[in-house]
Amino acid sequence: MSAMQPIVSIQDLHKSFGNVEVLKGVAMDVPKGAVVCIIGPSGSGKSTLLRCINGLVPFDRGSIRVGTFDVQTLRTDPQRIALRKVVSMVFQQYNLFPHKTALQNVMMAPIHVLKEDKAEVHSRALALLEKVGLSAKADVYPGELSGGQQQRVAIARSLAMHPDVMLFDEITAALDPETVKEVLNTIRELAQDGMTCILVTHEMRFARELADTVYFTDGGVIVESGPPAELFDRPRMERTRAFLSQIL
Amino acid sequence: MSRPLRWNQALPGGTDLPVLLPAAARLARSAQSERTSGQFMLRLRAEHGVALFVLFLIACGAAQAQGGAGSPSILETIWKWTPLLLRGFLFNLAISVTAMLIGTLAGLFLGFAQISLLYPVRKGAWLTTHFFRNAPWLVLLFYCMFLLPFQVTVFGVTIPIPDWVKATFGLALPVMANVSEILRGAVQSIPTAQWESSASLAFTRRQTMWRIILPQCIKRMLPPWMNLYAILTMATVLTSIVGVAEVMTLTGRVLSAENRQGLLLPFYSYVLLLFFLYCYPIARWTVRLEAKYAVER
Fold first, then answer.
1. Burial letters for B162-191: b for 16+ Cβ neighbours within 10 Å, e otherwise?
2. pTM for the whole thing?
């Protein structure tokens, strides 16, 4: 273990929806600048885990520490909002604001939430759209963009908040194979820039190439974790082997 | 997690089961808007106007034949009274615009209360909305006529409240309830994902509401709101029952002044035509906006 304090630290996380326990004691440490991929079958609680990290979903037991925030102690909206300024999330269905152009989508949160200077935000938003390869689409509404383009705008929109940690919830699951690549390239650049990324993904090749650590979850627990070379090539657990043989 | 489908849920795409498809996208759309607005959509077409006009001409012809030779032409009689009838009709429109204004302002307020996070506020607004939405308009009108005072005294100044003002309030009540429901329906029709992504960008609830949710709601609210206005305009004739001198009341007076056989049908067809001419453009515009927004959505 390095001496560096992990930026996200999860201990014994439990979460139930009604009678269904979806997380049964999850633990995970994510160092700053690391890329972590969470893989596993549907319904294994991956998305819920991400939603717990930025306080979208309250959890029952355990602790999550993100930077200086202890998520389980955040009771009020202003406290949760402070956390979400640090942790940004990108969704499977993009969830862009349909009544705003791509550029406005990127600019809204910095202007209204961070209260930053409009002109400064404008130039930064343009730079971010340039970064995700969409400067030509700045004034286009989400409805006229392809899925891959919308997802890249969504990434730019999250980046505009200068987060310390980015959460990606199956962001390529709704895309066709060709556009998956353009989105993954964007993430690759982010990782190279040193952004801490936690991805829930089904893109095994991508996880193998980019992740520092891969977590395999099933039935609400982490079955196995390790560097991708180990987890993919020499899985220790029978359940992991079964899952990987299904999808590789 | 798969739950059994309910009768009103769509099958997931790509099924090979035999399914009953909606008759047409247009029907599905109108059903949707009728669900959200809770009102029937006024679907007036140009043919309806032509039919009304033909009915009017036939009524005139029949009355002319009944009157026999020597009696003045029916059309001339109608033309003679038209300035008076139009004045009455303008009064209807004034009542409808005022009632719509008051009803919309109160309804938006009530609608926001319906989506409040505070349970008592939400519940109270819900009760108020549904009470006024489900009460017969005429009953509400009578309530206002007889419960509101005929004058109020403010700082020693006595202000009379004429009947038509009371009637306008009476009509504003159901409008308020319907606008409240239109707002609530529109807010709830915005996908929860919009709330989630706003929250993830650290927007407060208030910011999310005003900057993300409501701007998207306006488009969804406009067609049912315009439709409500057309319905209200037609309902203004109810005020004739409580004695307001609007077009129906005036028509009745004209008929008794003329005191001639067979004028009933031509005159009331004429009034019907007036309402059609006013409501038709509104109805057409509503349908067009609806179609436009359905595509953009």
1. ebbebbbbbbbbbbbbbbbbbbbbbbeebe
2. 0.84
